[in-house]
Each structure stands twice: as structure tokens, then as C-alpha cells.
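Before going further, learn to read the protein records used in this course. Taken together, the C-alpha cells spell out the fold as the letters spell out the chain. A record is reproduced here so that you can trace the correspondence yourselves:

***
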Amino acid sequence: MNVMKYLYLLALFTLVTMSNVNADQQGKHLFILSGQSNMKGLQPEISFIPAVEAEFGKDNVIVVLDAESAQPIRRWYKNWKPKEGNNSEVTGDLYDRLMKKVSAATKGKKLQTVTFIWMQGEEDARQKHGEVYVVSLKGLLEQLSNDLGRNDINFVIGRISDFDLEDEKYFHWTLVRKAQVEVAETDPQWTWVNTDDLNDGISRKGKEIKNDLHYSAEGYIILGKRFAKESVALIKKSTQKEVESD
């Protein structure tokens, strides 16, 4: 090996090593994805994970997904209450399952940012709990913030689609849609993504769909990319604020 090639390889090794050390010192970017069937169908390894890894580096990203079809928000929010009467339903069990995964994935690791990505609401619309969705979603975010000991969590929500804009099947559909946007616009580190164009086309089963409850095969890929794009934007905004405050 000639001297110039040796020096080049040494410099390259040093650069990679220093980059890894710097990343470890700053911490990793944690992405928590949860919700019901349209989150379960996301398959983040196809579109979401490649996008965030391209932005931050594979070694700097932790992605945890846990979702369950046809479940209301009370399965995550422990203090959920209906508009009237007392709650006799199970609350928080899916949240506990999610947090076990988060704990295992982050054990011994320093976190630079945490981003919570939520795709849920269809079941609350069906069960007519739209009137308490704002309180429930804000409560869930506060619950997560307290459990992780952070007040800087980025939040991205997928607004439920145009499946039932007439409220004919799921009577609180438009109410939940409005609630999701209301919450997302409460804080500059929170945002929402549109899904109205994702439920037309061909499903993963090869069936043609139109304004379906679930998304097309291509729709899930687009959703993952949208979640990644908004997550990256929020992270850049938050890290820029930290730089300016320093």
C-alpha cells in the first residue's frame, strides 16, 4: 500500500469514527408509531424508515411501531372518560404494550429527539366519542411526555380520511377529523398530514377501492413518506431552536 492511499484510508476511518462518536454524544432520534389499522398497515420499512435513515443516518434512528386494528383511543389513554357517565371500559393496555417496546428499544441509549406519530380515530368516530377526542388526544400526549420525562416531543398525526364526510356510517367522522386538526395546530411542534387521497386505487389484495376505510397499496407508501417528511421538518425546527437559544 502506498503512503497516499494509506493516509486517505486513515483519514476516512477517522472521519467515520468521529461521526459515530458525535452521534452517540448527541443521541439518537426516536420515532414512535402507533394507532389502529391504517397504522398497522403502514409497513414503515418500505417508506418511512428509509426516508428518516437517509436524513439522519441508519445508526442514529430508532423506530418503534405498535398498532392494533379497530381500537379506540381509550386503549392508549389511561384517563379516558366518555362525555356522559362513567367509563367501564379497559384503558391504557395498548399504551403499556407500546411503551414496553419503547423501553426495550431505547435501553441504555441517549435520545436527542422523540417524535410520536399517530394514525387513529376511526373507531372513536364509529363509537360516537368525537366530542371527547380533543381532550383524549391531548391527554395521551401529556401521558407520553410525563412517562418519557420530556416536554419537547414532536407530534405528527394522520387525519382520518374522507371515508365518511356525510357522517352516515361513522356518525362522528367529521367531528374526529376536526378534533385532530385542532390538536395538531395547538403547538408549533405538532402537525397533521392529509390522507384524503390515499384510499382510492388498488388495495394490497388487488381490489379496486374508492373512498375506502383503508388505504391503497400505494397509499400506504405515500403515507409513510408524508409521516417521514413532517417528522424531519419538526426535528429540524426543534434543533434549530436549540441552536438559536444557545
